[in-house]
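Intended use. Records like the one below are meant for learning the mapping from a protein sequence to its folded structure. Do not use them to infer anything beyond what is encoded.
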Amino acid sequence: MRSGESVSERLDSEAFGGPGLLTRPKVVDFPERLKERRKANRRQRLTRMGVAALVVVAVLTLIWSLLFSPLLKLQADQITVRGTNTWVSKGDVTAIADTHVGSSLLLVSGSGIEEKIGELPGVVSAQASKRYPHGLDIVVKAEPPAAVLKDANGDMTAVDSEGRVLNAVNASVKGIPVIEVKNAKKSLDNKAVIQAVKVLGTLDESMRRKVSKVTAKTQDSVTTTLADGYTVIWGNSSQMRLKKAVVDTLLKNPKQLGGAKTINVAAPDKATIK
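Structure written out for the chain above:
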């Protein structure tokens, strides 16, 4: 630096680019920058659209695989049924499940199947469990007939505890209480017959086997005669748990009967014997 020359004078000299170097504005190419920004935004949009499209395809593929592809379809040979008996056929239960064959297990309603099976005469309860990837396991609790309706022609019609006709053909009715009626179909609209069926349906199988005769002149006078000579007047089907407890206690201790052969539990809290 020459003697006496200030810094600003030195910077303005030709050696440092001439006057105004520090205050010279920087020139920016705005159209070029705008073009670059647009390109970047376009790439970003395309990237987002591509990702969104891939997500949509993945979701649709997953839905198709789970609901419409063979991956989880119910197969007929993978349906199992247990718990049926002579009066509740395995075929009737399987037929209900077969209506869902070919559908994805995710779309099969287990509760819906259970409800349909529960409507079959003789079925107390049903449980349907899905067995992935293609199976369905059904367990049925089936009851024996509560009674057999014997009409004037000697024809037998087995019914469950709800008065529903059981569909077994030529099945043995040995050990099943018999109710004599004029017409089996019409008798199911008779309140006295329905009450008798409900009473019999609540009895233990061992006691049902002892029943030799059933009468019900009215809905409140259901009476059974047992093979060992005792007669039980049940009244109607209300409070059957208490009524059975009283009858069981007396029959297990015949000395309490004092020779009486008739037990009246129509009013179980005031049971009488004679």
